[in-house]
Amino acid sequence: MPNTIDLLLKNHPDGWAWTKVRAGERLTLNEGVRLICEGDLSALGMMADYARRKRWGGKAFYGNSANINHTNECILDCDLCAWKRPFQPKRLHPEAYVVEGDDLIKRIDEAVRQGAWEIHIVGGITPRLDLGYYEWLLTTIRDRAPHIFIQGFTAIEIRYIAKLHRLTPHALLEKFQTWGLGSVPGGGAELFHPRVRNLIAKNKESAEEWIEIHQTAHRMGLHSNATMLYGTLEEPHEIVHHLDMLRNAQDETGGFLALIPLAFLPANTKLEGKVHGTTGTYDARIFALSRIFLDNFPHIRILWTYQGPRMTQTLLSYGVDDIGGASLDEEIAREAAGYSDNAFTASHLARLLAEAGREATPVDSIYNPAPSRQVLKQASASLLSPL
Ligand code: SF4
After folding, report:
1. Domain assignments of the chain as residue spans, ordered by start
2. What is the torsional sign of CA 312, 314, 318, 320?
3. Among candidates 261, 284, 285, 242, which has minimal Cα distance to 37?
4. Residue 68 near residue 99 (C-beta atoms within 8 A)
5. Could you tell me the distance, in angstroms and rounded to a whole number, from the CA of residue 157 to the centre of ligand 1?
6. How many percent of the chain have pLDDT more than 90?
7. The predicted structure's pLDDT at residue 339
8. Confidence class for position 156, pLDDT limits 50, 70, 90
9. Alpha-carbon distance 345 to 339, whole Å?
10. Is the model's pLDDT at 385 over the cut of 60?
């Protein structure tokens, strides 16, 4: 029996793509490029929405998270970055910091008071911190707030910390797991194509090295996400190249849960003035194509801190099923004039979903149901007791 999309796309120039999406057939690289260049936006939206609904029906996911960006000191100098401060061996750069001592306890307690059920840890690449620091960071969170799920450390951090301490990434991840790490975030993937990567994140690890770390995590039973930074200097085929590498990697190890396309925020980066930020239609095209090209990724997530609440809600109709967490204390997007705002809470996210007609479903980073209100209330009350 033909459905509404069948009728609408029957004689449509993009009808060929709909035939494949409906049959669950994979798009080829060339077909992906054709859609991103010539695809009709409303047809792309319908196809992406179909693929999303087929997996998730009316459900959409959100979280309540806090960020701990434990240091902004970094030995690299990616053109895309507004947040890092340079590494100085003798003493910290005046604008650099490392989260230490009571500051960490205060941040954990604030997250617990706000009802957060997960913490995301991402930092710069620095030789200043030893393994004992990471053990302290993870175990302090784990012991102070056992109900909190910890997602942390991008692939380049894992590679660098492992190398610095003469460990394999596998051995480092084992230690991190023992200390409380629950999953690996998707950051640092940027765009895999070497031409663009060289322009925006020179000296960062290669695409293959990024994927190797994630596949190591997957083989250990850890889940991870992937990001895709778009809106810099890419050509359409370089977007599809990125998606294709992820799709192939996922076929091998199957541990990715979400793709998070990130709209580039040029403010305060070395690319400011050379690129001007994305447009709404380009955003919609990228998200829709991601959903229909990545047939083996369960979730397409948007971060409101990059896209703003309005676009976040709109892109729910272009393949998005997950709008991420509240992101208390998010600093990386904020430094690039993103939307980070501690006043925007998980209940605002739930409202965005409800208004869009979705069943707002609170989950942690690996899509386990969020802790009950009772557990969150008890955790907050226990902060009144001394350590
Ligand atoms: S993007 Fe990451 S690795 Fe690159 S300069 Fe910024 S903090 Fe360092």
Report:
1. 56-382
2. positive
3. 285
4. yes
5. 10
6. 92
7. 85
8. very high
9. 13
10. no
Q: Are 48 and 288 in contact (CB under 8 A)?
A: yes
pLDDT per residue as tens digits for the range 335-365: 887 888 888 899 999 999 999 999 999 999 9
Q: What is the mean pLDDT of residues 134-159?
A: 98
Please list, residue by residue across 287-296, b when 16 or more beta carbons sit within 10 angstroms of its beta carbon and e when fewer do. bbbbbbbbbe
DSSP β-ladder status, 299-300 and 256-263: parallel
| Tokens of residue 245, six digits | 């590498």
Spatial contact of 93 and 126, defined as CB atoms under 8 Å apart = no
Its pTM stands at: 0.96
Question: Which residues lie closer than 8 Å to 268 by C-beta, 6 or more apart?
Answer: 82, 335, 336, 337
Ligand 1 contacts (CB < 6 A) are 74, 76-78, 81, 83-84, 124-125, 156, 204
User: Residue 31: CA atoms inside 13 Å, Cβ hemisphere, count?
Assistant: 19
Cα of 122 from ligand 1 centre, angstroms: 10
The per-residue pLDDT for range 218-248, each reduced to its tens digit, is: 999 999 999 999 999 999 999 999 999 999 9
Q: Are 12 and 42 in contact (CB under 8 A)?
A: no
State the distance from the centre of ligand 1 to the C-alpha of 234, rounded, in angstroms: 19
User: Which residue reads 């890419």 in tokens?
Assistant: 234
Task: Return d(Cα 155, Cα 171) in angstroms, integer.
Answer: 14
Which class does domain 56-382 fall in?
alpha beta
User: What CA–CA distance (Å, rounded) separates 351 from 176?
Assistant: 35
Tokens 């992906």 belong to residue = 32
